[in-house]
Amino acid sequence: MKCVVSSLPTCTIRCPQFDWLLSAAPQFDLVIFAGDALDIGSSVDFRAQIVVVKKYLSLLSGLTRVILCSGNHDLDERNPEGEKISRWIGDVRELGIVRDGDDLTIGDTLFTVCPWWDGPLVKQRIDDQLREAAARRPKRWIWVHHAPPANSPTSWGGKRFFGDVELAQWIQTYQPSMVISGHVHQSPFIADGSWFDRLGDTWVFNAGLQPGRPPVYIVLDIDDGTAFWLPAGDAQCIDLKAPLRRPAAEVTDPPALAYILGSDCRSEPGETVIGGRLIMLCRISPTIAR
Question: Assuming Cys at both sites, which of 7, 108, 196, 281 could form a disulfide with 139, CB separation 3.0 to 4.6 Å?
Answer without folding.
Answer: 108
